[in-house]
Amino acid sequence: MRVETYSAELNLRQSEEIQLYSRIFEQHAAVASYGPAARAIIGRVLQELADEAGEADSGS
Length: 60
What we know:
The protein is mostly helical. It has one domain. The protein contains two helices and two strands. The longest helix has 24 residues, at 35-58. The N and C termini lie far apart (49 Å).
């Protein structure tokens, strides 16, 4: 199993490690948003960032 992290790529071969990373992935996937719900979250965050950038540009 290959796992990419922020600073490296891990090649896991021990079944305990593979099971650990699989469980963690499943937990993250269970609470993740997908499709239209994910797009709505991303759109909302982009708008908030744009609003913040506009405030910084205007000196507020």
